[in-house]
């Protein structure tokens, strides 16, 4: 996932909260809590970053924490909070 | 033109340091910038007169928010990013502008989940709800408190079962998917859980079970309707079995007091009053939770300056509810971390102290507390009542079947005790003069 391009799902709104943010998906009506402000920054940065790794770096997440963040992002992907972004030259969209 | 004192930095004023991290529940107890789950009772008017109505509905309040005021509330909810509201009443669909407000909310990114007894859900409305105008942002909850007409109509009034079923049929015919069947669990219907599930399956609906609260008119019938201890266990086991089987049963998180049986039920197990939930009533009064429509839990009115956001973020009551709670008498209980002392409204309306056990505490402390207060227990007087002044034909008649034999023979029949024999037939009366009619 680190080398893939992802983005916040267009159906999702992020609401800032003291602990991070609340993500709501207007399509499947799932509500998810992003429990760290850094994760919110990462999720917001996804769409403008060439890949997930860049988004993590933009948010200042140390490399040692990347695996944990990838796990969290995979969880968000399962409910379509974030989705894989089609880029110009991807080698096929593996689900 | 602000009165705020000058500050060297742009940091937010006087925000007490909020701990980062911790569990979600710990964060929720400190409150959120906007509610997650907001209930909005659009009207106190209702065609029914359910015996246990938690908002004592019946008559419309003349100060009810106008269409424009209601739309302004929706605008504010959109600004605060409240993603959906639970609309109820009263019976919300009998407000003439109900469908207009639903459309307005959906168009402003405020999804709607509304509770109805089904009275206005004809084929045309069902088609509207299933259609593109609602864009899947509208959820419908049909209230049904019995899986049979007999059990349902006992508390909701004659004909109400048929009305609800007709609405479910109309929704199904229109292609509306995943309606909710919303059941308040009572002593009379706990034995029907499987039948409720079958009904839900029939209509492609999801079952939603919630707790009976002693709020509103519910206070008058709580003693008779609330589930018995063994029924609470039955409900808990049934819910756990559903969860294990992967069947989605909604509970609105209302059974968190049952978490003290052991394993917590799915969902947040905490009292969200004033922290993650609240209630807006038909005149714009904001209460801590849908089950606490009482002056004691009134935080403010959204028509006042600052609107709903100010009430939510700054009201004295909500600030207090978000401050650390002691747990009182419950703090020493081994299960306190599971149930957090139970439901505030259930305690308040049964006359129990707010820092004591829930009246339906599964460890039995609630019953003990109720008993120890005995005759000295005072239940708070209702601070408002919208019940109809005179009963109508829709009023439930909670007649009980006689469970004891009649006190004396002549109670039952004018011919009781009359044993016809060849000689006495047609000459004696059935009533003996002794022990009769005592």
The share of residues in helices of chain A is: 25-40%
Average pLDDT taken over every residue of chain B = 87
How many strands, what sense, and barrel or not for the largest sheet of chain B? 9 strands, mixed
CATH architecture of chain A: Alpha-Beta Complex
What shape does the CA trace of chain B take?
Answer: globular
Going across the biggest sheet of chain A, name each strand in turn. Answer: 2-3-4
Q: State the low-pLDDT regions of chain A, or none.
A: 89-95
Number of helices of chain B: 14
Supply the number of structural domains of chain A: 1
Distance between the termini of chain B: 81 Å
Structural write-up:
The complex is a heterodimer of chains A (95) and B (438). Helix content of chain A is 32%, strand content 23%. With 95 residues, chain A is of the alpha+beta class. Chain A has a single domain, classed as Outer Surface Protein A, domain 3. In chain A, helix 1 packs across helix 2. Chain A is globular, with a radius of gyration of 13 Å. Chain B is globular, with a radius of gyration of 25 Å. Chain B is built from 14 helices and nine strands. Chain B has a nine-stranded mixed β-sheet with strand order 6-5-4-3-2-1-7-8-9. In chain B, helix 4 (123-130) crosses helix 6 (160-174). The interface between A and B is medium-sized, with 15 and 18 residues.
Q: How are the SSEs placed, and which strands pair?
A:
The complex is a heterodimer of chains A (95) and B (438).
Chain A lengths: L5 E3 L3 E6 L2 E6 L5 E4 L2 H10 L5 H7 L7 H13 L3 E3 L11
Antiparallel strand pairs in A: 1-5, 2-3, 3-4
Chain B lengths: L23 H6 L7 E5 L25 H13 L4 E5 L9 H10 L3 E6 L6 H8 L7 E6 L5 H8 L3 H15 L5 E6 L7 H10 L3 E6 L6 H8 L3 H16 L32 E4 L4 E3 L10 E4 L5 H8 L1 H6 L14 H4 L4 H6 L15 H9 L65
Parallel strand pairs in B: 1-2, 1-7, 2-3, 3-4, 4-5, 5-6
Antiparallel strand pairs in B: 7-8, 8-9
């Amino acid at each position: 996932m680190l080398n893939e391009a992802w983005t916040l799902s267009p159906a999702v709104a992020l609401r800032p909260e003291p602990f991070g943010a609340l993500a709501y998906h207007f399509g499947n009506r799932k509500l998810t809590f992003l429990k760290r402000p850094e994760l919110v920054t990462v999720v917001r940065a996804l769409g403008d970053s060439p890949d997930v790794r860049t988004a993590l770096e933009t948010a200042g997440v140390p490399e040692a924490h990347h695996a944990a963040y990838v796990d969290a992002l995979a969880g968000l992907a399962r409910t379509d909070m974030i989705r894989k972004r089609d880029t110009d030259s991807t080698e096929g969209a593996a689900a | 033109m602000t009165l705020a004192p000058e500050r060297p930095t742009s940091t937010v004023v006087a925000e007490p340091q909020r701990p980062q991290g911790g569990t979600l529940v710990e964060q929720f107890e400190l409150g959120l910038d906007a509610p997650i789950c907001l209930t909005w009772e659009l009207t106190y008017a209702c065609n029914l007169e359910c015996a246990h109505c938690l908002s004592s509905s019946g008559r419309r309040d003349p100060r009810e928010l106008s269409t424009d005021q209601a739309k302004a509330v929706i605008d504010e909810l959109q600004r605060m990013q409240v993603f959906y509201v639970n609309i109820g009443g009263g019976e919300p669909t009998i407000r003439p502008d109900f469908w207009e407000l639903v459309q307005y909310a959906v168009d402003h990114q405020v999804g709607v989940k509304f509770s109805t007894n089904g009275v206005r859900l004809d084929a045309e409305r069902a088609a509207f709800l299933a259609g593109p105008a609602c864009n899947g942002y509208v959820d419908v909850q049909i209230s049904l408190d019995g899986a049979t007409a007999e059990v349902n109509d006992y508390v909701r009034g004659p004909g109400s079962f048929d009305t609800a079923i007709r609405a479910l049929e109309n929704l199904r015919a229109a292609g509306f998917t995943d309606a909710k069947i919303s059941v308040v669990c009572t002593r009379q219907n706990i034995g029907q859980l499987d039948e409720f599930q079958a009904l839900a399956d029939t209509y492609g609906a999801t079952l939603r079970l919630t707790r009976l609260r002693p709020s509103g008119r519910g206070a008058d019938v709580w003693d008779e309707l609330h589930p018995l201890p063994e029924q609470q266990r039955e409900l808990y086991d049934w819910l756990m079995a559903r969860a294990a089987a992967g069947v989605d049963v909604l509970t609105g998180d209302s059974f968190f007091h049952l978490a003290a049986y052991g394993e917590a039920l799915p969902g947040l197990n905490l009292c969200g009053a004033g922290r993650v939930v609240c209630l807006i009533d038909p005149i714009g009064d904001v209460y801590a939770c849908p089950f606490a429509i009482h002056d004691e839990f009134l935080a403010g009115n959204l028509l006042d300056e600052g609107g709903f956001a100010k009430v939510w973020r700054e009201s004295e009551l909500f600030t207090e509810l978000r401050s650390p709670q002691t747990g009182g008498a419950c703090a020493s209980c081994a299960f306190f971390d599971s149930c957090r002392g139970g439901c505030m409204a259930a305690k308040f309306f049964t006359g129990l102290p707010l820092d004591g056990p829930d009246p339906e505490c599964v460890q039995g402390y609630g019953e003990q507390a109720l008993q120890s207060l005995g005759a000295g227990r005072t239940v708070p007087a209702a601070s408002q009542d919208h019940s109809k002044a005179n009963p109508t034909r829709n009023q439930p008649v909670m007649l009980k079947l006689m469970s004891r034999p009649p006190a004396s023979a002549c109670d039952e029949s004018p011919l009781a005790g009359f044993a016809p024999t060849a000689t006495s037939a047609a000459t004696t009366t059935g009533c003996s003069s002794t022990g009769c009619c005592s």
